[in-house]
Amino acid sequence: MESFNTAPVASIIFLFTIVTSIYAFNDHQLFGKFMLHPYSVAKGNKLYTFITSGLIHADWMHLFFNMFTFFFFAFQLERMIGHWQFGLLYFLGLVLSDIPTVFRHKDHFGYNSLGASGAISAVLFSYILFQPLSLIGVMFIPMPAIIFGVLYLFYCMYMSKRSMDNINHDAHFFGALTGLILTVILVPGIMPHFIGQLASIWQ
């Protein structure tokens, strides 16, 4: 209840995404309708899937990993950035992170994409601007958020070029950039704050 009072937008997104994803696991028609299909979107059809594709996930592990990340960063971020600012960042994170995917796969009829990873990357990187020295655990190894962020961006670029798995690394990368850029626009003084946090290491 406290989370809903202090971070209502994140709470609604969190619950709605879980419920919609679980429902879609058992409704293949809805699952197919909600997926982002770049071939169709590039022709002006199914534009709504920029949003709905972020409400469904491929499987339980995909859903758990995204919501686990969301839980640890989104609620804190909404308290720091503001309610409508958080909602706008998440919404634009969903849309803008998928636009490069549409351009890249506009001629690939069999390609689909789904999941909230782009928006969650936007949330995570916005959080990093507020708390660059906070620790983020990766494979049980804690590291400063700023170090994680740099490694994450390089990893996404590398994996995107290889295209060796079924993960949309482009959405992760451009979602992260969306989070950084929008936070700078929405929060006056965030860059001096970010630089000051980093400078405190040597003080």
How would you sum up this structure in a few lines?
This protein is mainly alpha-helical.
Strand order of the largest sheet: 1-2
Helix-strand topology string: HHHHHHHHEEHHH
CATH level 4 superfamily: Rhomboid-like
Shape: globular
The total tally of domains equals: 1
CATH architecture: Up-down Bundle
Low-pLDDT segments? none
Would you tell me the structural class of the helices and strands?
Answer: mainly alpha
Please explain how this structure is put together.
By secondary structure, this protein is mostly helical. It is 70% helix and 4% strand. The chain has one domain: Rhomboid-like fold. The chain is built from 11 helices and 2 strands. 39% of the residues are buried. The model has no long low-confidence stretch (mean pLDDT 91).
Helices and strands in order, then pairings?
Elements: H1 2-6, H2 8-25, H3 28-34, H4 38-41, H5 49-52, H6 60-81, H7 83-104, H8 117-130, E1 135-138, E2 141-144, H9 145-162, H10 169-186, H11 190-199
Keywords for this entry:
two-stranded antiparallel ribbon; mainly alpha; 203 residues; globular
